[in-house]
């Protein structure tokens, strides 16, 4: 999933990028509230470098929270008879296989490529890495908490969430390593504590996250295929990793698909609210409008 942060966030003063070779290392601290806020860039070694205004927009990635008590009820097999535990068991085995365990290994091409990216492209590319890292990290936080909260109620579903948080942490870490090629890093610990969390009811978490994961899959594979056909635009090696990477997102989407099937009440509410004459697309409108907002701010990369 990705995020769009306004370029102005960092471009207002530009020192970080245009003089990046002069700054040994900087840590971004992205703040949370909607009006423009302040981000602190800190040079490695603790020396404060500069302060840069952050302007958050609709497209800035968000962090999410939900009604965890309701989640526990929804995944209680004594209460929800629609839960297909054998399907979840099969999915769990797939996640345990951890197909991409050894996939995210960097090489010297990364730094060499980063050093060749200059000017406006450098600025845009750093934003791309930063937004993507924040979005992946957002998924990590939500899935990790769901894994923790559902452990007693439904250990199988809980373990899947934990393994998905493993994947998202890996993705976020790989993107953050990419930022290090530009002498930058996102302060993820600070983000966790300081960023505002947006609340969604569980059913909207299901809709939004399902679509977000599937859009994430299509985004990664589309970029990968495009650059494979047009290698002259392959400016940084991270894109070569997208072919396997997108399969993680696809598996996450498949899991949410199984979750949605296990929550027919949520799906039915969507249909009933639109009436019997509504087309499928109209039926989905109330859900997707919320979902689109979520997608824009989490995964809808570019
Ligand atoms: Fe991911
Ligand atoms: Fe994912």
From TrEMBL:
Residues 127-260 form the Rubrerythrin diiron-binding domain. It catalyses: Mg-protoporphyrin IX 13-monomethyl ester + 3 NADPH + 3 O2 + 2 H(+) = 3,8-divinyl protochlorophyllide a + 3 NADP(+) + 5 H2O. Its cofactor is Fe cation. Signal peptide: none annotated. Keywords: Chlorophyll biosynthesis, Iron, Metal-binding, NADP, Oxidoreductase, Photosynthesis. Coiled coil: none annotated. GO terms for cellular component: chloroplast thylakoid membrane. GO terms for biological process: chlorophyll biosynthetic process; photosynthesis. One of its GO terms (molecular function) is metal ion binding. Its EC number is 1.14.13.81. InterPro entries: AcsF (IPR008434), Ferritin-like_SF (IPR009078), Rr_diiron-bd_dom (IPR003251). It is an enzyme of class 1 (oxidoreductase). Pathway: Porphyrin-containing compound metabolism; chlorophyll biosynthesis. The keyword Calcium does not apply. PANTHER family: MAGNESIUM-PROTOPORPHYRIN IX MONOMETHYL ESTER [OXIDATIVE] CYCLASE, CHLOROPLASTIC (PTHR31053:SF2). Belongs to the AcsF family. NCBIfam families: AcsF, PRK13654.1. This is magnesium-protoporphyrin IX monomethyl ester (oxidative) cyclase.
